[in-house]
């Protein structure tokens, strides 16, 4: 990316830059989600790591990941709607 000062960017260039930043933030959030979900579900479900997962471990991981994703989505939606409400009240 160029090191051009943002003051000399056109409106379209600023918008493109903002889109790139938003995309990078979304990628970072997805990576964080996967990392935390993996760590928490592994810690919760895998008592003795081995070469394969038994049925109970597979079920535990699947359920843990589902619950984690549901919670993440709920928090994200709630946070987004709160931000939107605050913007509308300004």
UniProtKB/TrEMBL annotation:
Keyword terms of this UniProt record: Chaperone, Disulfide bond, Membrane, Metal-binding, Mitochondrion, Mitochondrion inner membrane, Protein transport, Translocation, Transport, Zinc
Pfam family name, one: zf-Tim10_DDP
GO cellular component: mitochondrial inner membrane; mitochondrial intermembrane space chaperone complex
GO BP of this protein: protein insertion into mitochondrial inner membrane; protein transport
Domain of life, source organism: Eukaryota
Bilayer disposition of the protein: Peripheral membrane protein
Domain Tim10-like: 20-80
One Gene Ontology MF term: metal ion binding
Protein location: Mitochondrion inner membrane
SUBUNIT field: Heterohexamer.
Family: Belongs to the small Tim family.
Domain notes: The twin CX3C motif contains 4 conserved Cys residues that form 2 disulfide bonds in the mitochondrial intermembrane space.
Function text: Mitochondrial intermembrane chaperone that participates in the import and insertion of some multi-pass transmembrane proteins into the mitochondrial inner membrane. Also required for the transfer of beta-barrel precursors from the TOM complex to the sorting and assembly machinery (SAM complex) of the outer membrane. Acts as a chaperone-like protein that protects the hydrophobic precursors from aggregation and guide them through the mitochondrial intermembrane space.
The name this protein goes by in its record: Mitochondrial import inner membrane translocase subunit
Organism: Eumeta variegata
Taxonomic classification: Eukaryota, Metazoa, Ecdysozoa, Arthropoda, Hexapoda
């Amino acid at each position: 990316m160029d090191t051009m000062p943002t003051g000399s960017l056109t409106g379209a260039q600023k918008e493109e830059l903002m889109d790139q930043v938003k995309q990078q933030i979304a990628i970072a959030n997805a990576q964080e989600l996967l990392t935390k979900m993996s760590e928490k579900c592994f810690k919760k479900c895998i008592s003795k790591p081995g070469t394969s997962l038994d049925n109970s471990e597979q079920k535990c991981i699947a359920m843990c990941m589902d619950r984690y994703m549901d919670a993440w989505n709920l928090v994200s939606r709630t946070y987004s709607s709160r931000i939107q409400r605050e913007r509308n009240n300004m």
